[in-house]
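Morning. Coffee machine broken again, so started the prediction first thing and wrote up yesterday's gels while waiting. Chain of 305 residues, entered below exactly as on the submission form.
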Amino acid sequence: MAWNGSGGAADAPRSGERRRAAGNGRGSAPNPARRRFAAFRGAIAALAVVLGAGLAWWLVSRPASTEPAPGPAHGKTAAVPKPVAPKPAKAGTPNARAKAEKAAKPEPPPFQKRPGAMQLPDGRVLTFRPPKEGEFRIVHSHGSTYKCDHLGNWEDVTPKPVFDNSFEEALVGMATTGNFIPGMLLGLDEKEAIRMLTKPVVVNEGDSEDVVAKKEAVAQAKEAILDYMKDGATLDEFVMEMRRQAVKEKFIRGTALKEIVASLKEGRAQDAADMRDAANRMLEKEDLPALKIPAHIENAIEESK
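Came back before lunch.
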């Protein structure tokens, strides 16, 4: 064997070459073990492909599960819900128009003129006991007065207001009766009140005696109020003073009449006469009208003297 200059054999093969040469020399004949291993590995790969494809097809095409839901724990039987009967459907509520049509009352027949009945201009019908032939009946309704005969004919005889404003109309009751004090006289504006108090009361040529008497009473009441207010008093103070006098007058008249009747029942006519005279003196002192006694009581006093 020859050596080269590096001290190695020139023709000696390298270690890798020796392994390949030795292997080639040994592997020139087929190796059964290697062939069986290669075949087994290929079969395993093919089986894996087949199993994967089959699993995918089964997952896609399998039907929905029909297994019952798991029951309650500990072997308890689930309660079966009771059937619920359906509620009957409510009848439809009619609309407002249907209600109005159902509630609408039939129109009354046209009014026929007859005794004991009258139809007012606003359509209302008044019924009353008809008067005798040749007589009339006075019917009052809502501030109006009607004169009706026995045939059903009627006439509006409502008295016209004496005054053209509410202030003077309110003074009529106070001026004529003395014990009716209207509340509307309270709280009025002082300037407006003075203007109405100084407004003259006009008596017309065609006024009846009753109307003239009311106008004169109102004129006197205006003068009395203005005289009361001249020292600085107000209209409200005058009205309150009139109310106090009205209460006092009512007490005097009521007490006196009660004592007079009681004395007559006990046969003490003189005591009844004395009570009457004493009451009139008290009323005169207050500038109030004398006591009005019913005629039958006055006659009993005079007859027992």
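Strands lie at 117-119, 125-127, 137-141, 144-148, 154-156. Going to sketch it on the whiteboard this afternoon.
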